[in-house]
Specification:
Number of domains: 2
Number of strands: 10
Largest sheet: 8 strands, parallel, barrel
Strand content: 5-15%
CATH architecture of the largest domain: Alpha-Beta Barrel
Low-confidence stretches: none
Order of helices and strands: HHEHEHEHEEHEEHEHEHEHHHHH
Number of helices: 14
Shape: globular
CATH superfamily of the largest domain: Divalent-metal-dependent TIM barrel enzymes
Structural class: alpha/beta
């Protein structure tokens, strides 16, 4: 890293963007508003800590690969997360699934979890100075084996999962209370049918009933926010997914919940970036799960592509940052897991910075004047502006590795830590 070179490049970029009416210093400040929730499950392939060496199974979720260095204990996971945080500019959050409780070797079924099983996570987040989000874990469990949880026609099973979600919401509220910032609790279920069902309506009536029961208690929004997450289909649920986008969007609007938009959960030709402003006409906030669906919901590491850029641009252009909760959701076990975290998070941050470096007011002015050639030309010229100089300076200011320097740090961490597991 050549500090002098980075500073000189930034000054030149600052002048070039100023010619377009963009204040790069203000952009650097605004980047502090981009807080990304890091999904804990990237460290261990969605295994969790309910049992020794737990493995992901069921629910239409699949982590592929077996790269060495997987986190197998809470201590290892926290060490990995601390390394990741040290390589990222800005302030992030932690996104935890219920299966990652600190159970201290005791088996605690999901309808019995309590705040005490997550207190050490709260304390860890306090020490890191970050907030925390939470998710009910309605998969990889004997009572999810037939593909139905909250919409199960077996009343014992349905009640089990209702109780699980109830407890997760109570725990989430305690997260927010103790950490002094709201916890977003997300509910996603794998429920659906492999082949064509007859009683679609019956399953959806049960899901609505279960959600109403599980969310009967209203917690203060300064402590927790509820989100519900849809899916187009899943492995083993190809013919009907109970919690479709139409179902959950209706439920969210009617009950003032957040809709979770996962950009891997829609038809490949659908753009989540286009859904954000549509949903926010009727909802106070939305939750994003940002992934890279190479083939539908394949959960590849996020990269800086057109889909991601549209998401970031829509949020920035409309001043939606305070209404959009940003989280990542992928699990790649085929490469260094720490590297996967850092590449994906930095890609998301870069997309937001590129959006902030756009002269939006000027582009809207051209658009409203019908000057569509000029608008197109401006957008094309922006693609070759010196964004990287601003990004490098942002990393320099944050005292994190600049450019490719983080690669060597992760390689060293692999040598010193991951290879010894």
């Amino acid at each position: 890293m050549n500090k002098s070179r980075i500073e000189k490049a930034y000054q030149l970029a600052k002048e070039e963007y100023a010619e377009l009416g963009v204040n790069t210093d203000a952009v650097l400040q605004r980047m502090n508003d981009v807080v990304i929730s890091l999904h804990c499950w990237q460290t261990d392939d969605v295994g969790g800590f309910e049992t020794a060496d737990a493995k992901l199974s069921g629910g239409g979720i699949q982590a592929t690969g077996n790269y060495p260095g997987k986190a197998r204990t809470i201590a290892q996971m926290r060490t990995d997360l601390e390394k990741v945080l040290s390589l990222l500019p800005g302030k992030q959050r932690l996104n935890l699934h219920a299966i990652y409780g600190d159970f201290k070797g005791e088996f605690v079924d999901r309808n019995q979890i309590e705040v005490k099983h997550y207190q050490s996570w709260i304390d860890w987040c306090k020490a890191q100075g970050i907030g925390m989000d939470f998710n009910a874990s309605c998969f990889s469990h004997p009572k999810a084996a037939d593909g139905f949880t909250l919409s199960s026609k077996d009343e014992e099973i349905r009640k089990f999962w209702v109780e699980h979600v109830k407890r997760c919401r109570a725990i989430s509220a305690e997260f927010g209370k103790q950490l002094g910032m709201p916890c977003v609790h997300n509910t996603w279920i794998p429920d659906g049918s492999k082949d064509t069902p007859i009683d679609r309506n019956g399953y959806r009536e049960l899901l609505k009933k279960s959600l109403d029961e599980a969310m009967a208690i209203d917690y203060p929004k300064e402590y927790m926010k509820d989100a519900v997450e849809s899916k187009l289909f899943g492995i083993g649920a190809e013919s009907m997914t109970v919690g479709s986008h139409d179902f959950y969007l209706g439920y969210a609007i009617k009950n003032n919940k957040l809709i979770c938009l996962d950009n891997g959960h829609f038809h490949p030709t659908e753009q989540v970036g286009d859904k954000i402003s549509a949903c926010l006409q009727f909802l106070d906030e939305v939750l994003l799960h940002v992934t890279r669906p190479v083939r539908w919901d394949s959960d590849h590491v996020v990269i800086l592509n057109d889909d991601l850029q549209l998401i970031a641009s829509e949020i920035v252009r409309n001043n939606f940052l305070n209404r959009v909760n940003i989280g990542l959701d992928y699990f790649d076990a085929s490469i260094n897991r720490i590297g996967a975290y850092v590449v994906g998070t930095r890609a998301a941050q870069k997309a937001f910075m590129i959006a902030m470096l756009e002269p939006t007011a000027k582009l809207v002015e051209l658009e409203e004047a019908g000057q569509n050639f000029e608008r197109l030309a401006m957008l094309e010229e922006l693609k070759t502006k010196p964004f990287s100089a601003v990004w490098d300076y942002y990393c320099l200011q944050a005292d994190v590795p600049v450019g490719v320097d983080y690669i060597a740090e992760i390689q060293q961490y692999e040598k010193d830590v991951l290879s010894k597991r």
